[in-house]
Every structure is written in C-alpha cells, then in structure tokens.
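User: My collaborator sent over this chain with a note saying "see what the structure looks like." That's all I know about it. Can you take a look?
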Amino acid sequence: MKILLVEDSYMLADTLASALKQEHFVVDVADNGLDGYDMASSGIYDAAVLDLMLPKLNGYEVLKKLRQDKNPIPILILSAKSELDDKVLAFEYGADDYLTKPFEIKELVMRILAISRRKGEVQGNILSCGNLELDLRTCAIKNKDTNQSVQLAGKEFQLMEYFLHNQNQVISREQIIERIWGFDSNSEYNNVEVYVSFLRKKISFIHANMRIRAVRGIGYTVEAES
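Assistant: Without extra context I'll predict from the sequence alone. Here is the result:
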C-alpha cells in the first residue's frame, strides 16, 4: 500500500515513515497542508495520514477541500488535539478515523488497514489473480493449486501489489514510476522493465497462470491466462 503522510514535524514524520516502511508500506511525506492537498489529489495513494496543525493549509482545510473535490481517499487524522469537538469537526469534514497522539505504531497500522478495507481495496491479507496469490504479510507469491511459493524483494512486492490492485487495466510506465519510486524520483523507464522482468521470472518459477503483458508505447496490464 502507498501511504501519504502529512506531518510538519520532521522528527515525527521521519520516525513514522521508517516504522511504516518496516510494515511494508510505501510512504511519501508532505510537511505542509498545501503540498499535502496537491499530493493527495494525485490519486496514487491508498490512504492518507493527516495532522491537523499544519502550515500553509491546516488539516481541516485539507480534509474539507479533498471531500469537496469528491476525492474518496481514506483519511486518518493523527493529532495531539484530543477534545471531542475537534474529533466531531474532523468527522463532519469527512475523516474516516481519528487517532490522538501519543499512540502505538501497531494501532496506527491496524487503523490504516481498516480504513483501506472500507474503500474496498484491501480484502484480508491476500491479493490474487488466476491461481497466483500475494500474501501482504509475508511478501510472498504462491501458486494456490500447487502451494509452490517464492519470496518477493521490496520493489518487486510493491510493484506486484500495484499490479494486482489494477488488474485488467493498462498502467503507464509514468504511473508505475510515480507509484513505486515517487514524484521526485530520477528512475528511468528501464528500471520498470527490469523489475517487471524479475516478477515474470518468479511467476514462471511457481508456474502461475498470471500474465504481465506489455502494451506497446504505454505500459503494462495484468491478467489471468485461461
């Protein structure tokens, strides 16, 4: 899952990003509300963790503008503001959940997963295509007919997850680079081709019937072979 963290405290943002990455999330950070709003509007994130006390645009304003735009991104408010009125206002503006500081990382992770399920993008811990299953906990792919499995490395896992969330859709190379490597990445298109090649070899190794098909001049699409 790709998460947007909007937090102006550099130390807290760095700590949270590191902790979430250890839980296999892909994390981008915005340190002000205006950048947070722009990044959340891109449509490339599965969920956002949003502080309320932000420079340039406060969290309430970010939340309100996103919902006025009909943006359905699941949003978890993470704030030191613990009064009931603060929580009520956040939910009225369209927050999906509210967690007060201080907090435990495990609870943050579970709440992110919970609001993502409400969007319908995470069903348990398994994603599948044909007879291939991706376990989101172990980062392994398995042929469910034979139980043969193989582990995926970091970027392989992120790319496979992205493909499985967008089956039978054409995904451009630009979208893949933004999603996996980030907006500011200098990654080139051949990086995408290299990791697609890695995935194809591992899919072949477990004899799964999922196919990553190149769409000439555009990108890739994922489908189950009959």
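A starting point for your reply to your collaborator: The radius of gyration is 18 Å.
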